[in-house]
């Protein structure tokens, strides 16, 4: 909104404010600001509009939730694997029988029903 006001940038924002904020988000923009000055921020308005819209759509469609779910499943799988390895090591150290724990790479038997 400020950029759309006549001379809004000159009177409402400190020199370099927009440049610093855009460079913080898009480091590759630095060269453009050096070449074109503070008004180069106008070039980035469409980029930020598109990115904001993309992020809102992803949030509305649940895409971010899917990524979080996948990350949670990955963490749980790793934790489960570690727990299995630790349990096996502790049983072996204690000398207790390990027959009730599946061997490395052994898949569980699934019940198959034939109709």
Would you write up a description of this structure?
This protein has 115 residues and is mainly alpha-helical. 64% of the residues lie in helices and 0% in strands. It is built from five helices and no strands. It has helices at 8-12, 17-25, 30-36, 41-61, 63-94. The longest helix is centred in the C-terminal third of the chain and has 32 residues, at 63-94. It is elongated.
Concise structural overview:
The protein has 115 residues and is mainly alpha-helical. It is built from five helices and no strands.
Low-confidence stretches: none
Q: Provide a count of the helices.
A: 5
Helix/strand-derived class? Answer: mainly alpha
Strand tally: 0
Largest sheet: none
Cα gyration radius (Å): 28 Å
Report strand %: under 5%
Mean pLDDT: 77
CA-CA gap between termini: 68 Å
Helicity, as a percent range: 55-70%
Shape: elongated
Run of helices and strands: HHHHH
Topology:
Layout: H1 8-12, H2 17-25, H3 30-36, H4 41-61, H5 63-94
What are its keywords?
115 residues; 5 helices; elongated
């Amino acid at each position: 909104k400020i950029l759309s006001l006549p001379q809004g940038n000159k009177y409402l924002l400190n020199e370099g404010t927009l440049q610093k904020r855009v460079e913080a988000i898009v480091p590759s923009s630095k060269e453009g600001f050096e070449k074109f000055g503070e008004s180069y921020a106008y070039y980035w308005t469409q980029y930020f509009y598109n990115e904001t819209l993309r992020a809102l759509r992803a949030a509305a469609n649940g895409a971010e939730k899917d990524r979080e779910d996948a990350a949670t499943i990955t963490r749980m799988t790793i934790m489960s694997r570690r727990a299995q390895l630790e349990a096996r090591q502790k049983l072996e150290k204690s000398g207790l029988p390990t027959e009730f724990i599946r061997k490395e790479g052994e898949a569980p038997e699934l019940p198959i029903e034939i109709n």
